[in-house]
Amino acid sequence: MRAIGLTEYGGPEVLQVLELPDPVPGTGEVRIRVHAAAVNPADMLLRSGVTHERFEGRPGPYIPGMDAAGVVDAIGPDTETTLQPGDAVIALVRPYRTHGGAYAESIVVPAESVVPMPSGVDFAAASTLLMNALTARIGLDLLAIPPGGTVAVTGAAGAFGGYAVQLAKSDGLRVLADATPADTQLVSGLGADEVVARGDDVAGRFRALAPDGVDGLLDGAMLHELAVPAIRDDGGIAVIRGWAGPAGRGIRVHPVWVTESATDHARLLRLRDQAEAGDLTLRVADILPAAAAAQAHRRLAEGGVRGRLVLDFTA
């Protein structure tokens, strides 16, 4: 099979087309013929070697990718699942496992990491859902803000931030969000109640709208300690990529590790249902042929991408 991967860490240029054996599903696993794989910042961390320790010394090649959409083409022995060959599905993929990530024509993943594709959307759009939406869902669940509470979202125009805004609104929360002037209409359209200018000093602008402080904050912009002043005493902050504080004033810091919930089938199915109902907006920035993965990584690194770049594996 064809895959996009690397044999040494580095910049986008290390990504190359590889010919690898077709993976074989084992017990509890399904094989998916991939049609589309979304490109996420986590893929760049893998490619650059920042997270190399997660391979536990295993030799390459290494295949990035955490989001895939495609068609089931094989089910492992003794696998309890309602999925059938031919089903259109989406999957949350853990690229540090032996089988590698989503940048491949065929992938093998646990059946619990796979759910039916939302109806009414194409493979490219479907591939943008699970990793970022699940990250936002985990963050909100860790913050545990009751309906009627107030949450702030930084990086609200991004994929994680956009899902965080929409999921928080579906939870009955008041949502404050940040955006550049060019993204204000986008973020408002996602459901934010108030939108303020983004920047390192955004905490003061959130405080102006919530003088007692917000109950919790989802930090998609990774502002960390710069965002903490927006939060009330004994509130919480959900962070990506592992910042651990301290935050002070009794504020709880909740690192979000999405791969730990990759087999949380109920959560994945709920996100799929919300996307099908239109409660979550699937945003595709552009579709590129799989062989142009290096170009996709360069574009993502340059910033300003709204929605997700998607690699097409059907050509």
UniProtKB/TrEMBL annotation:
Keywords: NADP. The keyword ATP-binding does not apply. Residues 10-311 form the Enoyl reductase (ER) domain. Coiled coil: none annotated. CDD domains: MDR_like_2. One of its GO terms (molecular function) is oxidoreductase activity. This is NADPH:quinone reductase-like Zn-dependent oxidoreductase. It comes from Amycolatopsis sulphurea.
